[in-house]
Specification:
Number of helices: 2
Helix content: 25-40%
Number of strands: 7
Distance between the termini: 44 Å
Largest sheet: 5 strands, antiparallel
Length: about 170
């Protein structure tokens, strides 16, 4: 009887230490997708801006894209961002934004202006890269945003990842 009590006590201590750590790690894995893919989207926009030139040698940005998919998923699902079923699929293709793994979040590319000759007039153009997720299916969404600006100095990526309701 004493041995069983000691065994149960030991198991309770082990569970008390490892279960919260495991839950935190699962939660972190779920939300790490957003930060990683927003960074990839930002790199794609920067590359597009730096390498895309109109006939008059002016840098360009594609138009707004998303939300893709239209609603976030609780369980990860594979989404073909280049498919014509999605709003802005041409922009996703231009940004080369095609996640290689299933996604939980819905993604948007939101430039304040698109087209060419951006940043040359002195008017700054802002870009928001956004991910929205409903990780537990309760209808409350987490929002992750990364920003960038285009001005006379070119493309400048914001360092901060802005998060609203990280874990809902």
């Amino acid at each position: 009887m004493i041995e069983a009590g000691l065994l149960l006590s030991l198991m309770a201590v082990v569970l008390a230490v490892f279960v919260p750590t495991f839950v935190r790690r699962v939660r972190t894995n779920k939300i790490s997708e957003a930060g990683e893919l927003l960074q990839a989207m930002s790199r794609g926009a920067n590359a597009y801006f730096d390498t895309t030139w109109s006939s008059s040698a002016q840098r360009c940005l594609p138009p707004e894209a998303g939300p893709t998919p239209e609603a976030p998923a609780v369980d990860p699902e594979h989404v073909d961002f280049f498919s014509s079923e999605w709003t802005g699929h041409e922009s996703w293709r231009a940004l080369r934004f095609q996640p290689s793994r299933p996604v939980r979040f819905s993604y948007r590319f939101l430039p304040s202006a698109d087209g060419c000759a951006l940043g040359e007039t002195g008017d700054a153009v802002s870009i928001v890269f956004r991910a929205e997720g409903d990780l537990d299916g309760d209808g409350v969404r987490s929002t992750f945003e990364r920003g960038a600006t285009i001005g006379r100095r070119g493309f400048t990526t914001g360092e901060a990842l802005v998060v609203h309701q990280r874990t809902e």
